[in-house]
Specification:
single chain, about 500 residues, alpha+beta, Aminopeptidase, Alpha-Beta Plaits, nine-stranded antiparallel sheet, six-stranded mixed sheet, 11 helices, about 30% strand, elongated
Length: about 500
């Protein structure tokens, strides 16, 4: 069976179309045009705004013209993550999707169900003339995954709707009222990018008496740096810092280059560093590598169940290396910088309040660049965390900037929309949904700046391991999710 044969067919068919349309963050023009053309073919008004968002308007079903306008909101881009062995080009190649039991997956890449399932559900509603709903708007934002640029660029007065359904959560049966994935979401964390950079004068390598080694770490789970940060998964950048700290400080290694991670909102899954090892220290170096490997696999035995693959293999001799003082300062800073959960919400101790993801390290050719994503539902704690990184990396001689900051989506526990959604869910499923705050970035808080009176909630089908090549979508939850959306639209209140 192909995925477009799954039920509901109109949702899965549209999702399959999205998987065949390259749409990594930063390269969404093709999918934006596809969505506009799709809407116009289905006799709906559609346009792309100045920020690159797609906005679609569908008239009310006859008899529902007196209802308030509802908004279906999702984002068009996907996180481009793949296995080390994959040759997939996210800018040109369609995804290779397949069914594995109750799950839909993609071969060696992210699936893009985050947030392709939300977009596909909106597309299904656009084309289905039998769906009962009042005036409907669809907002599909650009580049949510890299900085929520579409949401930031959305101007006041463009949208007419009173109720916004964000289709970007990842646990069926949960309604989020803040930022996290799953449930009915009514709130979420804010975020800030901490960007550190410096230039340094490289030193010529004296190859005599030295052997070059490439240290590699791979095979980690990685994952979403918001919703999975509390699981204690290994961060490849932090592990590499420990390896290099151990080998450099014993005189066994001298760093030439170091690369790890490639997305600010994904826990780094792999990394590599090229180092120079004195021939007299080769045995000690190899012993330290083995010791680190044994230590890491013991520490993470219950989390990284497939094991942590740490290797060091001889490689071509580089021409340049880092000065020893720069090397030491950067190692100290990276090792000291906070990564992972910093604090849980005191009143909701199972939900992360503040966290940090040491996401990207690129050190080579006389330049060092480090990117960190700091998240918190409290602006004061977000600023504290960012300033702690500023203090840490500035002491290493790096320039530190804060970019792309946004506040969290503060929960409205008295939301009429959420109350209605919870009642509908219970009637449909015989149990109450979970109404929750999440530790991830949703666009609701940003949209709400220009639309402060808009009532919002977030929900979606069940996804696991977003932002990794292990991303998968639970098939039975898609139909439940879609039918739930239809029932909510049918029950949007009358104007007034």
């Amino acid at each position: 069976m192909e995925i477009y044969e799954l039920e509901p067919k109109n949702v899965w068919r549209n999702f399959y179309t999205l998987t065949q349309t390259p749409r990594p963050s930063g390269h969404t023009e093709k999918v934006a045009n596809l969505l506009v053309d799709f809407a116009k073919k289905n006799e709906c008004e559609a346009f792309i705004d100045e920020a690159g968002n797609v906005i679609i308007r569908k008239p009310a079903t006859p008899g529902y013209e007196n209802r308030e306008t509802a908004i279906l909101q999702a984002h068009m881009d996907m996180v481009p993550q793949k296995t080390k062995e994959s040759t997939h080009n996210f800018e040109t190649d369609p995804l290779q999707v397949y069914i594995d039991g109750d799950w839909v997956k993609a071969k060696d890449t992210t699936l893009g169900a985050d947030n392709g399932m939300g977009v596909a559900a909106a597309m299904a509603i656009i084309e289905d003339k039998t769906v009962e709903h009042g005036p409907l708007e669809v907002l599909i934002t650009k580049d949510e995954e890299t900085g929520m640029y579409g949401a930031f660029g959305l101007k006041a007065g463009v949208l007419e709707g009173k109720y916004l359904l964000n289709l970007d959560s990842e646990d069926e049966g949960e309604i989020f009222i803040g930022c996290a994935e799953g449930e009915i979401t009514i709130g979420c964390a804010g975020g800030m990018d901490v960007v550190c950079s410096m230039e340094y004068q490289e030193i010529d390598v004296e190859a005599e008496g030295m052997t070059a080694f490439r240290i590699s770490i791979k095979g980690l789970l990685g994952g979403h740096s918001g919703i999975e940060i509390n699981e204690g998964r290994a961060n490849a950048n932090k592990l590499m810092a420990r390896v290099l700290f151990a080998t450099v400080n014993t005189g066994c290694a001298w760093i030439s280059s170091w690369h790890g991670g490639n997305m600010r909102n994904a826990i780094p899954r792999d990394g590599e560093a090229v180092v120079l090892v004195p021939n007299a220290k080769t045995d000690e170096f190899k012993s330290l590598i083995q010791k680190c490997s044994d230590t890491f696999n013991a520490e993470f035995a219950d989390i990284e169940k497939d094991g942590i693959n740490l290797t060091a293999e001889p490689c071509d001799m580089p021409a340049k290396a880092m000065p020893e003082d720069v090397q030491q300062n950067l190692l100290n800073a990276i090792l000291a910088a906070h990564d992972g959960v910093l604090r849980y919400i005191p009143t909701i101790p199972e939900i992360v309040e503040t966290s940090s993801n040491l996401a990207i390290i690129n050190i080579a050719d006389g330049k060092a660049d480090i990117a960190i994503l700091a998240r918190s539902s409290q602006d004061s704690m977000k600023l504290y965390l960012c300033n702690s990184h500023l203090a840490c990396f500035s002491m290493a001689g790096m320039k530190v900037k804060f970019e792309g900051g946004y506040s969290g989506w503060q929960p409205n526990t008295k939301s009429p929309l959420v109350a209605m959604m919870a009642d509908i869910y219970e009637k449909m499923n015989g149990k109450k949904p979970v109404v929750q705050v999440c530790h991830a970035g949703l666009e609701c808080g940003i949209i709400g700046v220009n639309y402060p009176e808009m009532d919002m909630a977030s929900f979606g089908p069940t996804l696991l391991s977003p932002h990794t090549p292990s991303e998968r979508c639970l098939i039975p939850t898609v139909e439940k999710f879609y039918n739930y959306v239809l029932e909510i639209l049918k029950n949007i209140p009358v104007k007034g």
